[in-house]
User: Fold this.
Amino acid sequence: MADHILETKNLTKEFRGFIAVSNVNLRVARGHIHALIGPNGAGKTTVFNLLTKFLTPTAGSIMFNGLDITGEKPADIAERGVVRSFQISAVFPNLTPLENVRVALQRKLGTTYHFWKHAATLGVLDERARELLEAVGLADCAGTVTAELAYGRKRALEIATTLALDPELMLLDEPTQGMGMEDVGRIAALVKQVSANRTILMVEHNLKVVATLADRITVLQRGAILAEGSYAEVSGNPQVMEAYMGSAHV
Assistant:
């Protein structure tokens, strides 16, 4: 049996009579890239919000590394090594990429709130911050104000800040959303690169990216699992093809 780093059992979320997520049993194998796909409104981001405890499940459980984390807070989940990116780039626009990554490294060291310390004391973090920027192709703009970066580079910076927290499981929510073809290819290659020695669960609309990256795919429709398997298996599933008609072609 595969070693599953994350597992949900009958995960359900109801909003005033509307069932957004219904009895989702998700199993993510350690060391793999697992994609969560589906038409708009299928419940993908709601599942992410449940996994990271931005929402509380109505029913069901979430297991991480064999431990029940259903009742834990978002900060507790992050401390365990489950780190998430968002659809909208979540970086500090008025800081440089180096400073953005350094803030994330402070979080890992437990010095996040030491605002009264002299900036020079953060110099010990610079070497690691530059290594992370190099890893995502941003070494050349370490000192540029982030607001001046192109959108694709901001997304790369977000991945660098996520890596700074040394995640065991990375949850990437639409990493290529809103990008041109060149940036999509660059970010897809980056995701593949950073997947070494860690597990990635990603929500992604671009099915070419999914086909290229994902070892396993879970398809959601109306909050429930419609199909699961390799890209070849799910793309050939008549129910999946019907679900995507009018929104995308699998």
Summary: The mean pLDDT is 88.
